[in-house]
Amino acid sequence: MPLPSLSVVVPVFNERDNIAPLVHETTAALRGLTAFEIVYVDDHSRDDSLAVLQALKLQVPELRVLQHVQQSGQSTAIRNGVKAARGEWIATLDGDGQNDPADIPKLLKARASADLRVKLFAGWRVNRQDSGSKRWASKWANAIRSSMLKDATPDTGCGIKLFEREAFLDLPYFDHMHRYLPALMQRAGWQTVSVPVNHRHRTAGVSKYNNLNRALVGIRDLRGVAWLIARSKRSAIREL
């Protein structure tokens, strides 16, 4: 197989029933469009997610499987998947199936017509399919984040994103960083664009987050990211 130009990174924890449908949808969306690979990172699942992935590898040549030897969280899974990826550009999907892989070509199309300084194309769930309480919590979280970070991004929590691998790996790493990628990319001097995408109901498994733990972690992270932005210093360089 040729080296991929795109790597689709999917973190997964206890999502055994969502894995196969998402893998097959991703291959259907991308085969014939671009050279790609799918990198699943199993965050030490307690169900048989890993066995499902290993069986799928026999059917899907584009599929690669990584496993954390201990549970480490979504941001670490994404970062380890990006580090292992061979593509110059990365698309991410949540492992619960609520992101639609058919939107990846839409993000690639947006990249094709964008300024070269745009290094992140962030999905924007314009028609959320979550519970009312989760939508309400997300609305207020986005408003608070936007007020503090000035990142001009309506939906940083959407799991489907497209970004340049090199730019991502140059960002400061911390747990839950995946929720602040637009602000971190802008801090690094790059531009970001939000692209409307589809959002779907979860059809199997249960959410790994609740509104309270999101809020408690988010307050601390917001303060940290605001500090990073305030302390940022960039300078153009020239070689003499």
TrEMBL record:
It comes from the Bacteria. Residues 7-168 form the Glycosyltransferase 2-like domain. GO terms for molecular function: undecaprenyl-phosphate 4-deoxy-4-formamido-L-arabinose transferase activity. InterPro entries: Glyco_trans_2-like (IPR001173), Glycosyltransferase_2 (IPR050256), Nucleotide-diphossugar_trans (IPR029044). Transmembrane segments: none annotated. One of its GO terms (cellular component) is plasma membrane. Keywords: Cell membrane, Glycosyltransferase, Lipopolysaccharide biosynthesis, Membrane, Transferase, Transmembrane, Transmembrane helix. GO terms for biological process: lipopolysaccharide biosynthetic process. This is Glycosyltransferase. It comes from Pseudoxanthomonas composti. The lineage of its organism: Bacteria, Pseudomonadati, Pseudomonadota, Gammaproteobacteria, Lysobacterales.
